[in-house]
Amino acid sequence: MTYASWSKDEALLVLSQTRDKPGPVLISLQAIQSVFGFVPTPAVALIAEACNVSRAEVHGVLTFYSDLRTFLLPANHVRVCVAEACQAVGSRELVSGLKSQGVEFDKAFCFGNCALGPSATVNGKLQGRASVDSVVKAIQG
Fold this sequence. Notes:
The protein is of the alpha+beta class. The protein has two domains: 8-64, no CATH class; 78-140, 3-Layer(aba) Sandwich (Glutaredoxin). The chain has seven helices and four strands; from the N terminus they run ααααβααβββα. It is elongated, with a radius of gyration of 18 Å.
C-alpha cells in the first residue's frame, strides 16, 4: 500500500469530509491514518480545531485505540495473538520461533479467530493456525 507523504493541505481536505460526521474525532483520526499511513503529530491540532475539541481529547482517542499509530509501519507488519485461547494452542511457541528467525512483530489480544488459533496477521491479512513457516512465507510474498 502506498501512502501520501504528510501534507497539511491534504489533511485539511480529509478533515473537511469527516468533521461533521457522528464521532468525528475517531473518524478523522482513522481517515488521516488511511491517507498517510499514520497520524502525524501536527494532525492532532488540525483534528482538534476541525472537530471543536481540545488537543488533549484528540490525543486521548489516538492513544486509546491500538490500531491508531503515530508512526509509519514497516514494509511487513506482523501481529501475533497472545490472548489465552491462542496461548492454549501454541502462540507462545510461535512468538519464540518468530524471535529466533529475527522476525519483528507486535503482540495483539484477540483477532476473533479463536477456533483457528494460534492466529497472526501479516500486513493485515489474518492467518489461522499460524506457524513460523506460514508467517515467514507470507512475509516473503
